[in-house]
Protein 1
Amino acid sequence: DAGVIQSPRHEVTEMGQEVTLRCKPISGHDYLFWYRQTMMRGLELLIYFNNNVPIDDSGMPEDRFSAKMPNASFSTLKIQPSEPRDSAVYFCASRPSGAGRGHEQYFGPGTRLTVT
Amino acid sequence: AQSVTQPDIHITVSEGASLELRCNYSYGATPYLFWYVQSPGQGLQLLLKYFSGDTLVQGIKGFEAEFKRSQSSFNLRKPSVHWSDAAEYFCALNTDKLIFGTGTRLQVFP
């Protein structure tokens, strides 16, 4: 199993540009999570999906952020327009629905975003 | 309120010394608790988890953790630290979603 796949691994963009981060969850996992990690705020949950449906997006910082999951094997997190304060590492994670809350999430390697 | 507290931001130990990383949680029901490790530039890897049964759980890389309901704690331990254990460690509580502590950065001196 390849694990959770994220692309790109690094992204450098200029303020005002659109940024799209991509995630492929582990096959068979019903839940997908997007996190942001910064020095100031630590790990923050942005949004999560169950069976491709967004369940909780209360962590999405503002309307500039949007996430989609068009099918079970692909999700995107889009920032438009990007701002320097969006610079962070963005992680995607997935987990199966079996065992409920007792089952761990599997994390991807992250995308390091730098907005200049 | 649901929360996780890791009181120690940064810990330094000598290689071969024992280690204990503290974690306290606040949750009204049965907690599902996890410890993750993050090496520099990497994602998070699960060390161990607890959700029922024996309150002393064993994990990978020689780590263990003890769940103490009376103290609302889930401290991570290792009897002898290796230089490769230098990383950031996160305690997490699973409700419908993972609530992470702020992390403890472990530095290991030779």
Note: The first strand of chain B starts at residue 3 and ends at 5.
Protein 2
Amino acid sequence: DTGVSQDPRHKITKRGQNVTFRCDPISEHNRLYWYRQTLGQGPEFLTYFQNEAQLEKSRLLSDRFSAERPKGSFSTLEIQRTEQGDSAMYLCASSTDRSGTGELFFGEGSRLTVL
Amino acid sequence: AQRVTQPEKLLSVFKGAPVELKCNYSYSGSPELFWYVQYSRQRLQLLLRHISRESIKGFTADLNKGETSFHLKKPFAQEEDSAMYYCALANVSFQKLVFGTGTRLLVSP
């Protein structure tokens, strides 16, 4: 297992287009998180899944954003009608609630540039 | 509400000097606190957590509930410590991790 993987690593799109990011967590991890990071800021929480259930969504996640984890394995984050303010690094992380440690394992991120 | 404050964007020290990266938090419950690190061209990774009371790569951090702080310390900085450091706070069930804005540590020879 090579850890959390994200695809694509970079995406350049025009304003108004839709984009989708994929995250494959560590195989035995039941929790999956999406974060957004802009320049000079720390990662900002977007949403969280326990297995296939989306348990929490940030107010940052407008109705243009939707995330799914259909079978409790990989997850997708879709942004519709992209805006320039959506330009950021989108980070995925996974964890297991069985360890009791709270450690999150991060992917390398998907960088979105909206022109 | 959960909030983490890292007042310094950049901390620049010479090799061998002591390092203290500041972190203050705001949380109404009993917090779980972490330090994450991101080395150049690497992914964000856990450095240490307060419940373990461990020393990792010479770094330690003590939770001070009275001052609501969780400062990261190392007595003698090394060049390989240069990285971005993020303080983070979670609720007791670790369902959401809230990060500070990060401090860039630069250790010069």
Note: The mean pLDDT of chain B is 92.
